[in-house]
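From the pipeline queue, job 12 of 40. The input is one protein chain; the requested action is below.

Action: predict structure.
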Amino acid sequence: LLPSVLRAINDRRNERPDLILEGWTRIIDEKWRSMTQAISFEKGVLMVKVKNAALYSVLVQQEKEKLLRKLQDKFPEAEIKNITFRIG
């Protein structure tokens, strides 16, 4: 049991969710920065809250892959797999 717990702690430390959440503000376009907020990062998935449906649509359909690549380049050790957008 202890080795699995230690491995989980080490994996969590490598993810550094605090840095990834902060990094979102650096990679998102300035015009959208005030309308989005990275709210969590768990198991390789970044959750981003979006203020309106129009921006949600743009991010999901046109910008998601580009933003994901930017995050992966900036934080290669975190193994970011996906970005999930939620309206809220």
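Job complete. The chain is about 60% helix and 20% strand.
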